[in-house]
Design a protein that fits this description.
Layout lengths: L12 E7 L5 E7 L2 E8 L3 H15 L1 E8 L5 H18 L3 E4 L10 E2 L5 E5 L2 E5 L21 E2 L11
Parallel strand pairs: 1-4, 4-5
Antiparallel strand pairs: 1-2, 2-3, 5-9, 6-7, 7-8
């Protein structure tokens, strides 16, 4: 982890994008809507997100958090939401959410086994035998705030048991 900026230097105000619906976890930092830094970490959200947030909080003043609220791994979404919501409350900053399809070109998102989440006619459904490849999640160069809504809770799309 990097050291915090020395006292006396003002930390820049940034917006943070978190895409934690599967591994790798993707986080991006935006200044005035333009991406200035990206993190891509393999592993569980509960293990990779705390050091990312610690590092970014030391170097920047976070002014807003944007996150992908699903679909994807139930636990990854839950952990990302809890950490983002906690930071939002603690810092008194807004939290915004949108579907993860915004960050993988609307391609399928891996679910359990050979199943995947897909968006069909505006609805998210689960295909049990997914043949189409899922695409990696990418933080866009420019943050399109119009895709997000305020305080979006996690989007848990669970297969029938």
């Amino acid at each position: 982890m990097r050291e915090a900026l020395p006292s006396g230097r003002e930390r820049p105000v940034v917006e943070l994008l978190l895409i934690g619906v599967t591994s790798p976890f993707v986080a991006a930092v935006y200044e005035e809507g333009t991406r200035i830094e990206t993190f891509r970490e393999e592993g569980k959200s509960s293990e990779v997100l705390p050091p990312i947030l610690h590092d970014l909080s030391a170097r920047y003043r976070i002014g807003a958090i944007y996150y992908a609220n699903g679909p994807g791994s139930f636990m990854a979404i839950k952990v990302t939401y809890i950490m983002a919501k906690t930071l939002s409350i603690a810092l008194g900053i807004p939290l915004f959410a949108t579907e993860a399809f915004a960050f993988n070109g609307n391609r399928p998102i891996r679910a359990i086994g050979r199943s995947c989440f897909v968006k069909e006619e505006g609805s998210i459904v689960i295909r049990t035998d997914c043949e189409e490849e899922s695409a990696p999640f990418e933080a866009p160069l420019e943050l399109d705030r119009s895709l997000f809504r305020r305080d979006g809770e996690p989007l848990y799309v669970l297969p029938a048991v």
